[in-house]
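Please produce the structure of this protein holding flavin mononucleotide.
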Amino acid sequence: MPRLMILSASTRPTSPGPSIASWVTGRAVRDGVFTPFTVDLAELALPFLDEPGSPSQDAPVHPHTRAWSATVDSADAFVFVVNEYNHSYTAPLKNAVDFLFHEWRRKPVGFVGYGMSSRGMRAVEAFQPVAAALGMVPAAPVVTVGLRDDLDGAGVFRPGAALDSAADAMLRELGGLERALSGLRASAAA
Ligand SMILES: Cc1cc2nc3c(=O)[nH]c(=O)nc-3n(C[C@H](O)[C@H](O)[C@H](O)COP(=O)(O)O)c2cc1C
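Below is the modeled complex.
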């Protein structure tokens, strides 16, 4: 089965991001199309980009970049779980993405945004041009989690049926795109 990397973009302790990523992982396991694995940017703890060369032209020199490159390279598709800060996505997400170049290319990406008033949609929409610049192909629909609606009184993420079906629709689309794009990657590599 193709490998799906589910990236929790938050680096903040107490973030609901990892539990949202874990819910997406559960939906992907249930779906049975991908073998999912998660990456938590807080645990990955990349420094600010410190490679001497350009990710599009030069091989990485630092062990943390090589390890990150191998992880992303091993994925056939991505889901980015994106938190919204000040109407956009966050600096750690941009930094993690900027470390690499070829590893993202011709792979589909689904988005789960979360936040308060806009449910993370502004963060996702701000990120989409970056994904396009790297040759990632976005899957519709975008899933959004509203922290006022989808957390219980204790702050625990409680997805309802509507969120489950939105995630399933996004994962179905991601599966279709992955089948199309894996052929394209194989012919580009030949
Ligand atoms: C610095 C900062 C800026 C924020 N800006 C927004 C915002 O513009 N729109 C929004 O809906 N929520 C905003 N929020 C609320 C966050 O979306 C919410 O706290 C969410 O849990 C943040 O993700 P995290 O818990 O993974 O850090 C902001 C929170 C922080 C800490």
